[in-house]
Amino acid sequence: MKILVAVKRVIDYNVQIRVKEDGSGVVTDNVKMSTNPPDDNAIEEAVKIKEAGKATEIVAITVGEEKAQETVRKALAVGADKGIHVKTEGVLEPLAVSKIIQKIVEKEKPDLVFMGKQAIDDDCNQTGQMLSALLNWPQATFASNIEVKDNSLEVTREIDEGLETVEINIPAIVTCDLRLNEPRYASLPNIMKAKKKPIEEINVSDLGIDITPRVQQLKVEEPPKRKAGIKVANVAELVQKLKNEAKVI
Amino acid sequence: MAVLLIAEHNNKELRPFTLNAATAASQIDAEVHAVIIGQNSESAVKKLSELPVVKKVISIEAPHYENFTAENFAPAIVKLAENYSHIVCSANTFGKNLMPRIAAHLDTSQVSDIIKVISPDTFLRPIYAGNAFATVKTNDTKKCVTIRPTSFEPCESSGGTATIEKGEAGEEFSNTKFIKREEIKSDRPELGTARIVVSGGRGMQSGDNFKLITEVADKLGAAIGASRAAVDAGYISNDHQVGQTGKVVVPDLYIAIGISGAIQHLAGMKESKVIVAINKDGEAPIFSVADYGLEADLFEALPQFMEELNKLNTIQK
Protein backbone atom coordinates (compact mmCIF):
# COMPACT_ATOMS: atom_id res chain seq x y z
CA MET A 1 0.00 0.00 0.00
CA LYS A 2 1.22 3.45 -0.90
CA ILE A 3 0.44 6.57 1.13
CA LEU A 4 0.71 10.13 -0.18
CA VAL A 5 1.02 12.74 2.57
CA ALA A 6 0.52 16.44 1.87
CA VAL A 7 2.45 18.96 3.97
CA LYS A 8 2.31 22.75 4.04
CA ARG A 9 4.83 25.32 5.20
CA VAL A 10 3.28 27.89 7.54
CA ILE A 11 4.33 30.45 10.14
CA ASP A 12 5.38 28.49 13.23
CA TYR A 13 2.52 28.05 15.69
CA ASN A 14 4.52 29.70 18.50
CA VAL A 15 5.07 32.94 16.60
CA GLN A 16 2.96 35.95 17.56
CA ILE A 17 1.33 37.05 14.30
CA ARG A 18 1.88 40.69 13.25
CA VAL A 19 -0.31 42.39 10.69
CA LYS A 20 1.43 44.56 8.05
CA GLU A 21 0.77 48.27 8.43
CA ASP A 22 -0.51 48.61 4.86
CA GLY A 23 -3.16 45.95 5.49
CA SER A 24 -1.85 43.71 2.73
CA GLY A 25 -1.26 40.65 4.90
CA VAL A 26 0.79 39.46 7.84
CA VAL A 27 4.53 39.84 8.35
CA THR A 28 6.40 36.77 7.08
CA ASP A 29 9.92 38.20 6.59
CA ASN A 30 12.40 36.84 9.13
CA VAL A 31 9.65 34.87 10.82
CA LYS A 32 10.18 31.26 11.86
CA MET A 33 8.36 28.87 9.52
CA SER A 34 7.60 25.20 10.07
CA THR A 35 5.35 22.37 8.95
CA ASN A 36 1.64 22.91 9.61
CA PRO A 37 1.17 21.05 12.96
CA PRO A 38 -1.56 18.52 11.98
CA ASP A 39 0.45 17.70 8.81
CA ASP A 40 3.11 16.37 11.20
CA ASN A 41 0.44 14.06 12.62
CA ALA A 42 -0.37 12.93 9.07
CA ILE A 43 3.27 12.01 8.38
CA GLU A 44 3.60 10.31 11.75
CA GLU A 45 0.53 8.16 11.12
CA ALA A 46 1.78 7.12 7.68
CA VAL A 47 5.16 6.15 9.16
CA LYS A 48 3.48 4.14 11.94
CA ILE A 49 1.38 2.26 9.37
CA LYS A 50 4.51 1.49 7.37
CA GLU A 51 6.35 0.35 10.50
CA ALA A 52 3.44 -1.98 11.25
CA GLY A 53 4.07 -3.58 7.86
CA LYS A 54 0.82 -2.35 6.35
CA ALA A 55 2.28 0.18 3.92
CA THR A 56 5.22 -0.14 1.56
CA GLU A 57 5.88 3.41 0.43
CA ILE A 58 5.29 6.93 1.73
CA VAL A 59 5.46 9.91 -0.63
CA ALA A 60 5.46 13.41 0.86
CA ILE A 61 4.19 16.26 -1.30
CA THR A 62 4.17 19.99 -0.86
CA VAL A 63 2.92 22.78 -3.11
CA GLY A 64 4.48 26.22 -2.92
CA GLU A 65 7.53 28.41 -3.30
CA GLU A 66 11.17 27.29 -3.18
CA LYS A 67 11.45 27.11 0.60
CA ALA A 68 8.34 24.96 0.96
CA GLN A 69 10.67 22.08 0.12
CA GLU A 70 11.95 22.21 3.72
CA THR A 71 8.69 20.59 4.85
CA VAL A 72 9.19 17.70 2.43
CA ARG A 73 12.78 17.31 3.62
CA LYS A 74 11.51 17.11 7.20
CA ALA A 75 8.94 14.47 6.21
CA LEU A 76 11.74 12.46 4.58
CA ALA A 77 13.76 12.70 7.80
CA VAL A 78 10.83 11.32 9.78
CA GLY A 79 10.29 8.38 7.46
CA ALA A 80 8.84 9.29 4.07
CA ASP A 81 10.62 7.52 1.18
CA LYS A 82 10.31 10.07 -1.57
CA GLY A 83 9.33 13.71 -1.98
CA ILE A 84 7.44 15.77 -4.53
CA HIS A 85 7.60 19.55 -4.69
CA VAL A 86 5.11 21.25 -6.97
CA LYS A 87 6.56 24.72 -7.48
CA THR A 88 4.22 27.70 -7.46
CA GLU A 89 4.43 31.42 -6.73
CA GLY A 90 1.86 33.67 -5.14
CA VAL A 91 -1.49 33.01 -3.54
CA LEU A 92 -2.87 29.47 -3.69
CA GLU A 93 -6.40 28.62 -2.69
CA PRO A 94 -7.43 25.20 -1.33
CA LEU A 95 -9.38 24.50 -4.54
CA ALA A 96 -6.19 25.02 -6.58
CA VAL A 97 -4.13 22.88 -4.20
CA SER A 98 -6.67 20.06 -4.37
CA LYS A 99 -6.60 20.19 -8.19
CA ILE A 100 -2.79 20.01 -8.13
CA ILE A 101 -2.79 17.06 -5.72
CA GLN A 102 -5.44 15.37 -7.86
CA LYS A 103 -2.98 15.45 -10.79
CA ILE A 104 -0.25 13.96 -8.62
CA VAL A 105 -2.63 11.26 -7.35
CA GLU A 106 -3.43 10.29 -10.94
CA LYS A 107 0.30 9.93 -11.61
CA GLU A 108 1.48 8.34 -8.35
CA LYS A 109 -1.62 6.17 -7.76
CA PRO A 110 -1.50 6.10 -3.96
CA ASP A 111 -4.03 4.03 -1.99
CA LEU A 112 -4.38 6.64 0.71
CA VAL A 113 -3.88 10.40 0.94
CA PHE A 114 -3.27 11.89 4.40
CA MET A 115 -3.02 15.54 5.38
CA GLY A 116 -3.73 17.82 8.35
CA LYS A 117 -7.35 18.75 8.94
CA GLN A 118 -6.62 22.45 8.61
CA ALA A 119 -3.71 24.79 7.95
CA ILE A 120 -3.07 27.21 10.79
CA ASP A 121 -2.43 30.18 8.48
CA ASP A 122 -5.59 30.59 6.37
CA ASP A 123 -7.67 28.30 8.66
CA CYS A 124 -9.71 27.19 5.63
CA ASN A 125 -10.20 23.49 6.41
CA GLN A 126 -11.05 22.59 2.80
CA THR A 127 -8.27 20.85 0.86
CA GLY A 128 -8.83 17.23 1.94
CA GLN A 129 -12.58 17.36 1.42
CA MET A 130 -12.19 19.07 -1.97
CA LEU A 131 -9.64 16.51 -3.10
CA SER A 132 -11.92 13.63 -2.15
CA ALA A 133 -14.78 15.29 -4.06
CA LEU A 134 -12.59 15.68 -7.17
CA LEU A 135 -11.45 12.05 -6.97
CA ASN A 136 -14.87 10.81 -5.83
CA TRP A 137 -13.12 9.00 -2.97
CA PRO A 138 -14.44 8.57 0.57
CA GLN A 139 -13.25 11.07 3.16
CA ALA A 140 -12.65 10.75 6.90
CA THR A 141 -12.02 14.22 8.31
CA PHE A 142 -10.73 15.19 11.79
CA ALA A 143 -9.34 11.68 12.40
CA SER A 144 -8.23 10.86 15.95
CA ASN A 145 -7.77 7.12 15.42
CA ILE A 146 -7.11 4.98 12.35
CA GLU A 147 -7.28 1.21 12.11
CA VAL A 148 -6.06 -0.32 8.88
CA LYS A 149 -8.13 -3.28 7.68
CA ASP A 150 -7.78 -5.39 4.53
CA ASN A 151 -9.34 -3.05 2.02
CA SER A 152 -10.60 -0.30 4.24
CA LEU A 153 -9.83 1.96 7.19
CA GLU A 154 -11.88 2.29 10.33
CA VAL A 155 -11.53 5.90 11.39
CA THR A 156 -12.67 7.67 14.55
CA ARG A 157 -13.58 11.29 13.85
CA GLU A 158 -13.70 14.18 16.31
CA ILE A 159 -17.10 15.82 15.88
CA ASP A 160 -18.90 18.50 17.92
CA GLU A 161 -21.20 15.99 19.60
CA GLY A 162 -18.38 13.59 20.55
CA LEU A 163 -16.87 10.87 18.39
CA GLU A 164 -18.00 9.25 15.17
CA THR A 165 -16.63 6.06 13.61
CA VAL A 166 -16.76 5.41 9.88
CA GLU A 167 -15.38 2.70 7.65
CA ILE A 168 -13.99 3.96 4.38
CA ASN A 169 -12.92 1.77 1.49
CA ILE A 170 -9.49 2.25 -0.02
CA PRO A 171 -8.59 4.43 -1.94
CA ALA A 172 -9.51 7.16 0.52
CA ILE A 173 -8.59 10.53 2.02
CA VAL A 174 -7.98 11.12 5.73
CA THR A 175 -7.51 14.54 7.33
CA CYS A 176 -5.74 14.30 10.66
CA ASP A 177 -6.54 15.85 14.03
CA LEU A 178 -3.79 16.79 16.49
CA ARG A 179 -5.01 13.98 18.76
CA LEU A 180 -4.24 11.26 16.23
CA ASN A 181 -0.74 10.64 17.55
CA GLU A 182 2.40 12.24 19.00
CA PRO A 183 4.71 13.23 16.10
CA ARG A 184 8.30 12.08 16.59
CA TYR A 185 11.39 14.21 16.17
CA ALA A 186 13.78 13.35 13.39
CA SER A 187 17.10 11.98 14.66
CA LEU A 188 20.34 13.49 13.38
CA PRO A 189 21.34 10.35 11.41
CA ASN A 190 17.89 10.32 9.79
CA ILE A 191 18.16 14.00 8.92
CA MET A 192 21.48 13.22 7.20
CA LYS A 193 20.00 10.22 5.40
CA ALA A 194 17.01 12.30 4.26
CA LYS A 195 19.37 14.56 2.33
CA LYS A 196 20.02 11.66 -0.03
CA LYS A 197 16.37 10.79 -0.58
CA PRO A 198 14.92 11.98 -3.91
CA ILE A 199 12.66 15.01 -4.26
CA GLU A 200 10.96 15.36 -7.63
CA GLU A 201 10.40 18.97 -8.66
CA ILE A 202 7.42 19.77 -10.86
CA ASN A 203 6.49 23.18 -12.24
CA VAL A 204 2.81 23.85 -11.73
CA SER A 205 2.59 25.20 -15.28
CA ASP A 206 3.34 21.67 -16.55
CA LEU A 207 0.19 20.30 -14.90
CA GLY A 208 -2.20 22.29 -17.09
CA ILE A 209 -4.48 23.53 -14.32
CA ASP A 210 -5.94 26.99 -13.83
CA ILE A 211 -4.89 28.07 -10.32
CA THR A 212 -5.94 31.72 -10.58
CA PRO A 213 -7.34 32.84 -7.21
CA ARG A 214 -11.11 33.35 -7.13
CA VAL A 215 -11.19 35.09 -3.77
CA GLN A 216 -9.56 38.51 -3.41
CA GLN A 217 -8.11 39.46 -0.06
CA LEU A 218 -9.07 43.14 0.18
CA LYS A 219 -7.62 43.91 3.59
CA VAL A 220 -5.99 42.27 6.60
CA GLU A 221 -6.29 44.01 9.94
CA GLU A 222 -5.66 43.46 13.63
CA PRO A 223 -8.64 42.09 15.50
CA PRO A 224 -10.28 44.62 17.83
CA LYS A 225 -8.37 44.80 21.10
CA ARG A 226 -10.13 44.14 24.37
CA LYS A 227 -10.05 47.14 26.66
CA ALA A 228 -7.76 46.62 29.62
CA GLY A 229 -9.44 45.00 32.60
CA ILE A 230 -8.77 45.38 36.30
CA LYS A 231 -7.32 43.19 39.00
CA VAL A 232 -9.54 42.56 41.98
CA ALA A 233 -8.16 42.17 45.50
CA ASN A 234 -10.15 39.15 46.60
CA VAL A 235 -12.97 36.74 45.78
CA ALA A 236 -15.63 38.84 47.52
CA GLU A 237 -14.81 41.83 45.33
CA LEU A 238 -14.84 39.61 42.22
CA VAL A 239 -18.32 38.27 42.95
CA GLN A 240 -19.60 41.75 43.78
CA LYS A 241 -18.26 43.10 40.44
CA LEU A 242 -19.78 40.22 38.47
CA LYS A 243 -23.13 40.73 40.18
CA ASN A 244 -23.41 44.52 40.25
CA GLU A 245 -21.05 45.90 37.60
CA ALA A 246 -20.95 43.31 34.80
CA LYS A 247 -24.40 41.95 35.78
CA VAL A 248 -23.64 38.49 34.44
CA ILE A 249 -24.49 36.31 37.48
CA MET B 1 -31.08 34.72 -6.71
CA ALA B 2 -31.98 33.11 -3.42
CA VAL B 3 -29.64 31.72 -0.74
CA LEU B 4 -29.70 28.01 0.08
CA LEU B 5 -29.19 27.23 3.78
CA ILE B 6 -28.17 23.68 4.73
CA ALA B 7 -30.00 22.73 7.92
CA GLU B 8 -28.20 20.66 10.53
CA HIS B 9 -30.39 18.38 12.62
CA ASN B 10 -30.56 14.97 14.28
CA ASN B 11 -33.69 13.77 12.39
CA LYS B 12 -35.83 14.94 15.34
CA GLU B 13 -34.74 18.48 16.09
CA LEU B 14 -32.74 21.20 14.42
CA ARG B 15 -29.23 21.51 15.83
CA PRO B 16 -29.03 24.97 17.47
CA PHE B 17 -26.43 26.45 15.10
CA THR B 18 -28.89 26.10 12.20
CA LEU B 19 -30.58 29.20 13.65
CA ASN B 20 -27.31 31.17 13.61
CA ALA B 21 -26.61 30.09 10.04
CA ALA B 22 -30.15 31.14 9.06
CA THR B 23 -29.44 34.63 10.40
CA ALA B 24 -26.23 34.85 8.36
CA ALA B 25 -28.03 33.59 5.25
CA SER B 26 -30.74 36.24 5.67
CA GLN B 27 -28.06 38.94 5.85
CA ILE B 28 -26.82 37.86 2.41
CA ASP B 29 -30.29 37.86 0.81
CA ALA B 30 -33.81 38.04 2.22
CA GLU B 31 -34.91 35.10 0.07
CA VAL B 32 -33.63 32.16 2.15
CA HIS B 33 -34.53 28.59 1.22
CA ALA B 34 -33.43 25.75 3.46
CA VAL B 35 -32.59 22.21 2.49
CA ILE B 36 -32.90 19.47 5.11
CA ILE B 37 -31.58 16.01 4.32
CA GLY B 38 -32.24 13.03 6.57
CA GLN B 39 -34.43 10.04 7.23
CA ASN B 40 -37.72 10.12 9.15
CA SER B 41 -36.99 13.75 9.87
CA GLU B 42 -40.59 15.12 9.73
CA SER B 43 -40.42 16.88 13.11
CA ALA B 44 -37.14 18.62 12.23
CA VAL B 45 -38.58 19.58 8.83
CA LYS B 46 -41.59 21.14 10.54
CA LYS B 47 -39.40 23.14 12.93
CA LEU B 48 -37.36 24.39 9.99
CA SER B 49 -40.53 25.60 8.25
CA GLU B 50 -41.37 27.61 11.37
CA LEU B 51 -38.26 29.80 11.21
CA PRO B 52 -39.62 33.16 10.02
CA VAL B 53 -36.48 33.93 7.94
CA VAL B 54 -36.91 30.74 5.88
CA LYS B 55 -39.23 31.21 2.88
CA LYS B 56 -39.15 27.67 1.51
CA VAL B 57 -38.04 24.28 2.83
CA ILE B 58 -36.76 21.46 0.63
CA SER B 59 -36.89 18.13 2.41
CA ILE B 60 -34.91 15.20 1.02
CA GLU B 61 -35.28 11.80 2.65
CA ALA B 62 -33.68 8.42 2.07
CA PRO B 63 -32.30 5.67 4.34
CA HIS B 64 -28.71 6.52 3.38
CA TYR B 65 -29.17 10.07 4.72
CA GLU B 66 -29.79 8.88 8.26
CA ASN B 67 -26.23 9.54 9.43
CA PHE B 68 -25.44 12.78 7.60
CA THR B 69 -22.47 11.45 5.59
CA ALA B 70 -20.93 14.21 3.46
CA GLU B 71 -20.33 11.82 0.55
CA ASN B 72 -24.12 11.25 0.37
CA PHE B 73 -25.19 14.83 1.12
CA ALA B 74 -22.94 16.69 -1.33
CA PRO B 75 -24.40 15.41 -4.65
CA ALA B 76 -27.98 16.04 -3.44
CA ILE B 77 -27.11 19.67 -2.64
CA VAL B 78 -25.12 20.15 -5.85
CA LYS B 79 -28.24 19.14 -7.78
CA LEU B 80 -30.17 22.02 -6.16
CA ALA B 81 -27.38 24.56 -6.54
CA GLU B 82 -28.26 25.91 -9.98
CA ASN B 83 -31.17 27.88 -8.53
CA TYR B 84 -29.09 29.64 -5.90
CA SER B 85 -26.41 32.33 -5.70
CA HIS B 86 -25.10 31.17 -2.32
CA ILE B 87 -24.95 27.97 -0.29
CA VAL B 88 -24.56 28.57 3.45
CA CYS B 89 -24.04 26.44 6.53
CA SER B 90 -22.29 26.54 9.91
CA ALA B 91 -18.53 26.20 10.21
CA ASN B 92 -18.84 23.48 12.84
CA THR B 93 -17.68 19.92 12.23
CA PHE B 94 -20.85 19.21 10.20
CA GLY B 95 -20.37 22.13 7.81
CA LYS B 96 -16.58 21.90 7.70
CA ASN B 97 -16.85 18.29 6.61
CA LEU B 98 -19.57 18.89 4.03
CA MET B 99 -19.22 22.29 2.37
CA PRO B 100 -15.80 21.87 0.66
CA ARG B 101 -17.10 18.69 -0.98
CA ILE B 102 -19.98 20.72 -2.45
CA ALA B 103 -17.70 23.62 -3.44
CA ALA B 104 -15.28 21.34 -5.30
CA HIS B 105 -18.13 19.72 -7.24
CA LEU B 106 -19.29 23.23 -8.23
CA ASP B 107 -15.72 24.37 -9.00
CA THR B 108 -16.11 27.17 -6.45
CA SER B 109 -13.51 28.53 -4.06
CA GLN B 110 -15.19 28.32 -0.65
CA VAL B 111 -15.11 31.15 1.90
CA SER B 112 -14.76 29.51 5.33
CA ASP B 113 -15.81 30.57 8.79
CA ILE B 114 -17.02 34.13 8.17
CA ILE B 115 -17.82 36.33 11.16
CA LYS B 116 -19.55 39.16 9.26
CA VAL B 117 -21.45 39.68 6.02
CA ILE B 118 -20.19 42.95 4.51
CA SER B 119 -22.05 42.54 1.22
CA PRO B 120 -23.33 39.50 -0.72
CA ASP B 121 -19.83 38.89 -2.11
CA THR B 122 -17.62 40.37 0.63
CA PHE B 123 -17.08 38.87 4.05
CA LEU B 124 -14.94 39.25 7.17
CA ARG B 125 -13.17 36.13 8.41
CA PRO B 126 -10.54 35.40 11.05
CA ILE B 127 -7.20 33.96 9.94
CA TYR B 128 -4.21 32.78 11.99
CA ALA B 129 -6.50 31.56 14.78
CA GLY B 130 -8.17 34.95 15.08
CA ASN B 131 -4.89 36.87 15.36
CA ALA B 132 -5.83 38.74 12.17
CA PHE B 133 -9.08 39.51 10.37
CA ALA B 134 -9.25 39.36 6.57
CA THR B 135 -11.83 41.09 4.39
CA VAL B 136 -12.33 38.88 1.34
CA LYS B 137 -14.35 39.27 -1.85
CA THR B 138 -15.28 36.21 -3.86
CA ASN B 139 -15.51 36.44 -7.63
CA ASP B 140 -17.13 33.03 -8.12
CA THR B 141 -20.69 33.23 -9.45
CA LYS B 142 -21.78 30.45 -7.11
CA LYS B 143 -20.67 31.20 -3.55
CA CYS B 144 -20.12 28.56 -0.89
CA VAL B 145 -19.86 30.15 2.55
CA THR B 146 -19.53 28.67 6.03
CA ILE B 147 -20.31 30.92 8.97
CA ARG B 148 -18.91 30.99 12.50
CA PRO B 149 -22.09 30.29 14.47
CA THR B 150 -21.12 32.24 17.58
CA SER B 151 -20.68 35.42 15.51
CA PHE B 152 -24.35 35.51 14.43
CA GLU B 153 -27.39 35.66 16.70
CA PRO B 154 -29.81 32.75 16.41
CA CYS B 155 -32.91 33.67 14.38
CA GLU B 156 -36.47 33.53 15.73
CA SER B 157 -37.58 29.91 15.93
CA SER B 158 -41.35 30.22 15.63
CA GLY B 159 -44.06 32.04 13.73
CA GLY B 160 -42.92 31.19 10.23
CA THR B 161 -44.96 29.18 7.72
CA ALA B 162 -42.58 28.24 4.91
CA THR B 163 -43.84 25.91 2.21
CA ILE B 164 -42.33 22.43 2.30
CA GLU B 165 -41.28 20.78 -0.96
CA LYS B 166 -39.95 17.28 -1.42
CA GLY B 167 -36.54 17.08 -3.07
CA GLU B 168 -35.10 14.22 -5.03
CA ALA B 169 -32.73 11.83 -3.27
CA GLY B 170 -29.43 10.96 -4.90
CA GLU B 171 -27.67 7.62 -5.10
CA GLU B 172 -25.93 6.11 -2.12
CA PHE B 173 -22.14 6.49 -1.89
CA SER B 174 -21.18 2.92 -1.13
CA ASN B 175 -17.51 3.36 -0.19
CA THR B 176 -18.22 5.09 3.12
CA LYS B 177 -20.04 3.25 5.87
CA PHE B 178 -21.25 4.89 9.07
CA ILE B 179 -20.50 2.69 12.08
CA LYS B 180 -21.36 4.60 15.23
CA ARG B 181 -21.62 7.95 16.93
CA GLU B 182 -20.78 8.33 20.61
CA GLU B 183 -22.47 11.47 21.83
CA ILE B 184 -21.43 12.90 25.15
CA LYS B 185 -24.62 13.14 27.18
CA SER B 186 -24.83 15.76 29.88
CA ASP B 187 -27.43 17.72 31.84
CA ARG B 188 -25.24 20.75 31.53
CA PRO B 189 -25.63 23.34 28.78
CA GLU B 190 -23.64 22.60 25.63
CA LEU B 191 -20.19 24.19 25.63
CA GLY B 192 -20.69 25.91 22.27
CA THR B 193 -23.90 27.68 23.27
CA ALA B 194 -23.70 28.08 27.09
CA ARG B 195 -24.26 31.52 28.64
CA ILE B 196 -21.50 30.90 31.18
CA VAL B 197 -18.40 28.73 30.77
CA VAL B 198 -16.08 27.77 33.63
CA SER B 199 -12.76 26.40 32.35
CA GLY B 200 -9.81 24.77 34.07
CA GLY B 201 -6.22 24.48 32.93
CA ARG B 202 -3.02 22.74 33.90
CA GLY B 203 -3.18 24.61 37.21
CA MET B 204 -5.94 22.23 38.32
CA GLN B 205 -3.15 19.67 38.80
CA SER B 206 -5.43 16.61 38.56
CA GLY B 207 -8.69 15.30 37.16
CA ASP B 208 -10.04 14.95 40.71
CA ASN B 209 -9.56 18.64 41.32
CA PHE B 210 -11.92 19.41 38.45
CA LYS B 211 -14.73 18.73 40.94
CA LEU B 212 -14.01 22.23 42.29
CA ILE B 213 -14.91 23.52 38.83
CA THR B 214 -17.93 21.24 38.55
CA GLU B 215 -19.35 22.70 41.79
CA VAL B 216 -19.01 26.27 40.54
CA ALA B 217 -20.45 25.33 37.13
CA ASP B 218 -23.45 23.62 38.78
CA LYS B 219 -24.08 26.68 40.90
CA LEU B 220 -23.96 29.00 37.87
CA GLY B 221 -25.69 26.68 35.41
CA ALA B 222 -22.51 26.81 33.34
CA ALA B 223 -20.78 24.54 30.84
CA ILE B 224 -17.34 23.18 31.71
CA GLY B 225 -14.37 23.99 29.51
CA ALA B 226 -10.68 23.17 29.61
CA SER B 227 -7.40 24.23 28.07
CA ARG B 228 -5.52 21.91 25.75
CA ALA B 229 -2.90 21.45 28.48
CA ALA B 230 -5.55 20.08 30.87
CA VAL B 231 -6.91 17.76 28.18
CA ASP B 232 -3.44 16.53 27.20
CA ALA B 233 -2.63 15.89 30.85
CA GLY B 234 -5.71 13.66 30.98
CA TYR B 235 -7.60 15.74 33.58
CA ILE B 236 -10.73 15.91 31.42
CA SER B 237 -12.02 14.56 28.12
CA ASN B 238 -11.28 16.42 24.91
CA ASP B 239 -14.87 17.40 24.12
CA HIS B 240 -14.37 20.09 26.78
CA GLN B 241 -11.44 21.72 25.03
CA VAL B 242 -11.71 25.42 24.24
CA GLY B 243 -9.28 26.89 21.71
CA GLN B 244 -8.10 26.90 18.15
CA THR B 245 -8.10 23.11 18.02
CA GLY B 246 -11.14 22.73 20.25
CA LYS B 247 -14.31 24.77 20.40
CA VAL B 248 -14.67 28.49 19.91
CA VAL B 249 -16.97 29.88 22.60
CA VAL B 250 -18.51 33.33 23.05
CA PRO B 251 -20.42 33.18 26.36
CA ASP B 252 -21.61 36.18 28.40
CA LEU B 253 -19.16 35.11 31.10
CA TYR B 254 -15.98 33.04 30.73
CA ILE B 255 -14.12 32.08 33.91
CA ALA B 256 -10.57 30.81 33.28
CA ILE B 257 -9.12 29.01 36.27
CA GLY B 258 -5.48 27.95 36.37
CA ILE B 259 -5.15 28.69 32.65
CA SER B 260 -2.04 30.59 31.59
CA GLY B 261 -3.54 31.79 28.29
CA ALA B 262 -1.60 30.23 25.41
CA ILE B 263 -2.33 31.82 22.00
CA GLN B 264 -4.27 28.75 20.92
CA HIS B 265 -6.54 28.93 24.00
CA LEU B 266 -7.15 32.68 23.67
CA ALA B 267 -8.26 32.10 20.07
CA GLY B 268 -11.15 30.05 21.40
CA MET B 269 -12.50 32.40 24.08
CA LYS B 270 -11.28 35.98 23.74
CA GLU B 271 -14.52 37.18 22.11
CA SER B 272 -16.43 36.30 25.31
CA LYS B 273 -18.37 39.27 26.67
CA VAL B 274 -16.88 39.20 30.19
CA ILE B 275 -13.70 37.29 31.02
CA VAL B 276 -12.53 36.40 34.53
CA ALA B 277 -9.08 34.94 35.18
CA ILE B 278 -7.99 33.31 38.40
CA ASN B 279 -4.30 32.43 38.39
CA LYS B 280 -1.49 32.58 40.91
CA ASP B 281 1.00 33.81 38.31
CA GLY B 282 0.32 37.54 38.02
CA GLU B 283 2.29 37.65 34.74
CA ALA B 284 0.16 34.99 32.98
CA PRO B 285 -0.99 36.17 29.51
CA ILE B 286 -4.60 35.32 30.39
CA PHE B 287 -4.71 38.54 32.47
CA SER B 288 -4.18 40.62 29.32
CA VAL B 289 -7.64 39.63 28.04
CA ALA B 290 -9.41 39.44 31.42
CA ASP B 291 -11.95 42.07 32.48
CA TYR B 292 -11.51 40.90 36.06
CA GLY B 293 -8.29 39.26 37.15
CA LEU B 294 -7.70 37.66 40.52
CA GLU B 295 -4.13 36.77 41.38
CA ALA B 296 -4.64 33.93 43.83
CA ASP B 297 -4.12 30.24 44.53
CA LEU B 298 -7.13 28.59 42.90
CA PHE B 299 -7.36 25.98 45.66
CA GLU B 300 -8.08 28.79 48.12
CA ALA B 301 -10.04 30.97 45.70
CA LEU B 302 -12.53 28.36 44.41
CA PRO B 303 -13.97 27.36 47.83
CA GLN B 304 -14.25 31.09 48.67
CA PHE B 305 -15.95 31.67 45.31
CA MET B 306 -18.54 28.99 46.17
CA GLU B 307 -19.07 30.60 49.58
CA GLU B 308 -19.65 34.02 48.05
CA LEU B 309 -22.00 32.58 45.42
CA ASN B 310 -23.97 30.84 48.17
CA LYS B 311 -24.41 34.19 49.90
CA LEU B 312 -26.16 35.68 46.87
CA ASN B 313 -29.95 35.75 46.99
CA THR B 314 -30.36 35.09 43.30
CA ILE B 315 -28.19 33.87 40.46
CA GLN B 316 -29.16 34.45 36.83
CA LYS B 317 -29.67 31.26 34.90
List the helices and strands and how they pair.
The complex is a heterodimer of chains A (249) and B (317).
Chain A: E1 2-6, E2 9-11, E3 33-35, H1 37-51, E4 57-64, H2 69-78, E5 82-87, H3 94-108, E6 112-116, H4 127-135, E7 139-148, E8 152-159, E9 162-169, E10 172-176, H5 188-194, E11 199-203, E12 215-221, E13 230-232, H6 235-244
Parallel strand pairs in A: 1-4, 1-6, 4-5, 5-11, 6-10, 7-10
Antiparallel strand pairs in A: 2-3, 7-8, 8-9
Helix pairs in contact in A: 2-5, 3-4
Chain B: E1 2-6, H1 17-28, E2 32-38, H2 42-49, E3 54-61, H3 70-80, E4 84-90, H4 93-105, E5 111-114, E6 116-119, E7 122-127, E8 132-138, E9 143-147, E10 163-166, E11 176-183, E12 196-200, H5 210-220, E13 223-226, H6 228-232, E14 253-257, H7 263-269, E15 274-279, E16 292-295, H8 298-311
Parallel strand pairs in B: 1-2, 1-4, 2-3, 3-10, 4-9, 5-9, 12-13, 12-14, 14-15, 15-16
Antiparallel strand pairs in B: 6-7, 7-8
Helix pairs in contact in B: 3-4, 5-8
Write structural notes for this entry.
The complex is a heterodimer of chains A (249) and B (317). Chain A has 249 residues and is α/β, with parallel strands linked by helices. Chain A has one domain (2-223): HUPs (Rossmann fold, 3-Layer(aba) Sandwich). In chain A, 27% of the residues lie in helices and 31% in strands. Chain A has six helices and 13 strands. In chain A, strands 9-8-7-10-6-1-4-5-11 form a nine-stranded mixed β-sheet, with helices on both faces. Chain B has two domains: 2-166, HUPs (Rossmann fold); 196-311, 3-Layer(aba) Sandwich (Rossmann fold), CATH 3.40.50.1220. Chain B has eight helices and 16 strands. In chain B, helix 3 (70-80) crosses helix 4 (93-105). The model of chain B has no long low-confidence stretch (mean pLDDT 95). Chain B is of the alpha/beta class and 317 residues long. In chain B, the strands form three sheets. Chain B has a seven-stranded parallel β-sheet with strand order 5-9-4-1-2-3-10, sandwiched between helices. In chain B, strands 13-12-14-15-16 form a five-stranded parallel β-sheet. A three-stranded antiparallel β-sheet of chain B has the order 6-7-8. Chain B is elongated, with a radius of gyration of 21 Å. In chain B, helix 1 links the parallel strand 1 (2-6) and strand 2 (32-38). The interface between A and B is large, with 76 and 89 residues.
